[in-house]
């Protein structure tokens, strides 16, 4: 067998090939792309016997995605994607001086896969449709996060020079089409005070609001109340920044709606979509996010525990002598943890068994967020069973182990 350490950069790869005894057979710097992959194949083939197969080559690299990794998997190599923190710890075992170089990193990665591959997770290739779902689901969530950032900036700017606007538009939302339209039309206190009820009502009507007359009157009154302000030139500067932020938010709203359609279209094509949608608290967008982060490669998760560990919902126990504490995992996939947290929050509102479990945890003085983590952990286990057996969620089956408890009864 051959063991290859691949220290990747944006435009090149430093690789080292080792044999089973840890001897460095060859080191090389390969360019990114087709040319580099061809040279990688030639480099490895030079040390394999004629009857060898690509599966006898184990590659260790600090990523589990991208065209390079997919090309390695397609060629038949065993690819191990390791966390950079794991690689750094292994490098410290090999050298305590603190010296670091790309060539030394490739050597450490090759040694790592040679000596500790039983502790590493092999990269399993997801299907093409799962990869497509991941692309659109992540893009959709990123746009939402960007909208939140710009909304906070807009709120901060309004507080500095136009606090009456925050009070006036409080019944609405700062990202609403009507609020953005009114702010773009009247970004200064003087201009906002001149808005008529008819102008405000027209914006509310286009946004399909209810009780338009009462809301328009309340907004006009709030905009005309006295408040502390800034000098005229400073107000004009803030108004320019608000116009720019409003334009960005308007574009983000449109693109989020467009991308949501792409998420629904791609997720609906996946064969496991019905299983995900049957889970409590999961809709189309949330199901796409969970599928995207878990992937669909067969055999990636050997059991429910391994899926929970990857999800970051399984707790960590620290014990030393008589001291034993349990902590939440802080190193995790942020996108997956966010999706599972939202699922747990929705599940306690729509599933009686999940709600009973939540009430029991709260009765034991478990905090709200900690209870949601425990619920998310249970739901990940249930999802694993459903995906393994290709069956939809069934409340009686999923919570049968709690059927005899007073809470469940």
From TrEMBL:
Domain Transposase IS116/IS110/IS902 C-terminal: 277-358
GO terms, biological process: DNA transposition
Signal peptide: none
InterPro entries: Transp_IS110-like_N, Transpos_IS110, Transposase_20
GO molecular function: DNA binding; transposase activity
Highest rank taxon of the organism: Bacteria
One Pfam family recorded for the sequence: DEDD_Tnp_IS110
Domain Transposase IS110-like N-terminal, residue spans: 4-163
Record's protein name: Transposase IS116/IS110/IS902 family protein
Organism: Micromonospora olivasterospora
């Amino acid at each position: 067998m051959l063991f290859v350490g691949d220290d990747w950069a944006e435009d090149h790869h430093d690789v080292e090939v080792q044999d089973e005894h840890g001897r460095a057979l060859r080191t090389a710097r390969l360019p990114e792309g087709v040319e580099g992959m061809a040279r990688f194949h030639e480099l490895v083939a030079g040390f394999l016997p004629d009857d060898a197969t690509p599966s006898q080559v184990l590659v260790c690299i600090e990523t589990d995605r991208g065209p390079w990794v997919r090309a390695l998997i397609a060629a038949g190599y065993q690819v191990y994607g390791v966390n950079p923190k794991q690689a750094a710890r292994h490098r410290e075992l090999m050298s305590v001086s603190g010296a670091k170089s790309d060539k030394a990193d490739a050597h450490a990665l090759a040694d790592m896969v040679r000596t500790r591959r039983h502790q590493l997770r092999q990269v399993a290739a997801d299907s093409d449709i799962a990869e497509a779902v991941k692309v659109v689901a992540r893009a959709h969530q990123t746009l939402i996060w960007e909208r939140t950032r710009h909304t906070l900036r807009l709120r901060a700017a309004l507080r500095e020079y136009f606090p009456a606007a925050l009070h006036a538009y409080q019944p609405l939302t700062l990202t609403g089409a009507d609020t953005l339209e009114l702010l773009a039309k009247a970004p200064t206190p003087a201009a906002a005070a001149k808005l008529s009820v008819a102008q405000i009502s027209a914006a509310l009507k286009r946004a399909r609001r209810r009780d338009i007359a009462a809301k328009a009157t309340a907004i006009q009154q709030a905009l005309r109340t006295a408040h502390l302000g800034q000098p005229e030139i400073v107000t004009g500067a803030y108004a320019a920044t608000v116009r720019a932020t409003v334009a960005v938010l308007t574009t983000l709203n449109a693109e989020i709606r467009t991308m949501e359609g792409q998420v629904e279209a791609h997720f609906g094509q996946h064969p496991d979509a019905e299983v995900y949608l049957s889970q409590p608290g999961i809709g189309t967008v949330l199901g796409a996010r969970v599928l995207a982060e878990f992937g669909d490669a067969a055999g990636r998760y050997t059991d429910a525990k391994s899926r929970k560990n990857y999800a970051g919902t399984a707790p960590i126990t620290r014990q030393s002598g008589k001291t034993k504490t349990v902590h939440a995992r802080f190193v995790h996939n942020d996108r997956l943890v966010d999706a599972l947290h939202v699922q747990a929050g929705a599940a306690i509102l729509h599933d009686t068994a999940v709600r009973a479990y939540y009430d029991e945890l709260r009765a034991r003085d478990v905090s709200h967020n900690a209870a949601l983590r425990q619920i998310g952990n249970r739901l990940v286990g249930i999802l694993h069973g459903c995906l393994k057996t290709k069956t939809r969620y069934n409340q009686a089956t999923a919570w049968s182990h709690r059927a005899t408890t007073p809470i469940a009864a």
